[in-house]
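Sample intake sheet
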Amino acid sequence: MRVASSSGQIALGFAALLVASMPLWAGAYHLQLASTALVAAMFALSLQLLVGGAGMVSLGHAGFFGVGAYAVHLLPPGLSVLLTLPAAAGLAAVAALPIGALSLRTRGFFFLMVTLAFGQMLFFLFHDTALGGGKDGVFVTRPALEVLGLALEVPRRQRPAVLLWLNLGLLVAIYALLAGLMRTGFGHALQGIRANEERMRALGYDTRRLKLAAFVLAGALAGIAGHMAAMTDAFVNPEMLSWHRSVEALLMVLLGGIGALHGPVLGAFALVALEDAATVLTERQRLVEGLVILAVVLALPKGLASLRVRLRRPQPMPAEPVTAVRP
């Protein structure tokens, strides 16, 4: 999985500063929209570890996103976010471990279907039982912003700004974690598995164990994204675990660029902005979204992450006519 170049990281840094400064110049609606995009970017980034890192396409990834979100509802109210956030990641990782161990017995299309089946099982666990408050969802109490016993009292008007900064900080931390991970032996082994798993197995790598570790880590990161989604919206419902949410994350990865670490971030912001614009402009929201995504994917097969390289690439020089050489 490619990490952004130095100039690309500088551009991402400027973009992060721009988002962080939004409370100074943007209204509450756009702060909420930016927080939604940041959470979506976290979720898509966790899926990129599977798709772009190890070549595993999962349709059940939203299940771990939902487990992280419902952790906010199931844990006692009033706990510090420093407790609920690791707990959400831990619960999602615990759910991912057996699902990954069983799903990785299959490959390719069958892996896709098995992960979809497990994701739907998690969906119906919260949809058809009283565990998660019913099919209509439930409002949740946000965890307390408390550090070392010092509670941070946030006025209602400033709450969107604080949530925006918290989501941005976590997205930067997840990006840095995955960027560092891709430079380790574990990250190189995952990329080798994506390129040729048989060769990696012949070289002595336990590919199944490596893929399981990546699956559990991706599940934990999705749980963090789900926790922040519940904290941002103060609401959870079973739709957070549905396969539609997994497809949305795949679209973000595809739109941003498979194999580029910053691709899901670009894809998430682009998709959230597209959904918002389509909702305002037309009643055929899904049709417009589909056409735009199709056009972008056809024009940029490597996603939005390749746009800068595409613009800088020099045009090929016309071939010179071949003249016969006579002795």
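Comment: The chain has a mean pLDDT of 88. Residues 38 and 167 are 6 Å apart (CA to CA).
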